[in-house]
Amino acid sequence: MKDWDSGKGPSEERLADELELFADLDEVGIAIIDLQQLVKCTAAHPEAIPVLVDHIQRDYHGAEAKAIAEALMVADARPWLDTLIAEYERTDYESNQTKKDALAMTIGRIGRGYIPKTTIERLFNEARHDKSRILLHYGLKNLI
After folding, report:
1. Would you tell me which of 4, 76, 98, 122 could form a disulfide with 46, CB atoms 3.0–4.6 Å apart?
2. Spatial separation of the C-alpha atoms in residues 59 and 3, rounded to whole Å
3. pLDDT tens digits, residue range 94-130?
4. How far are the Cα atoms of 19, 23, 71, 115 from residue 14, in angstroms, in the given order?
5. Gap between the Cα atoms of 3 and 32, Å rounded
6. Contact 142/112 with Cβ under 8 angstroms?
């Protein structure tokens, strides 16, 4: 998948990815038609979280990755922190900065008080996470 932050209109591939996400959510009883609705759905529908965790591990870029990560900024997503951290570590900053930053914000927001200090130190000390570490620090600042 390509990075869709270029400002060009949505491609067929991007629309297909969104439709697949929306169809998967529909299977668990959540009907949405755009990414703005996605961000608002998890607070009222925690059953969406496993679907979103599955999709955040896919090769989404730009608005899709950001919307999925933001939708996971809820306390009910805490059981998947290890998965989110693994995806954060797997995501390359240079090729997918939007996703990396969005995951950092999500982990920082829901991870406060739930992530071991050794994990936090490891994430902060790895230069490959580049500037996204600032977003992690913002969310986890009371832990270090």
Report:
1. 76
2. 10
3. 999 999 999 999 999 999 889 888 998 888 888 888 8
4. 9, 14, 18, 33
5. 23
6. yes
Enter the tokens of residue 140.
């986890």
DSSP single-letter state for residue 8:
P
6 pLDDT exceeds 90? Answer: no
3-state secondary structure of 124: helix
Q: Residue 34 has what pLDDT?
A: 86
Amino acid (1-letter code) at residue 92? D
- Provide the whole-model pTM: 0.85
Spatial neighbors of 62 by CB under 8 A, at least 6 apart, are 3, 4, 5, 98
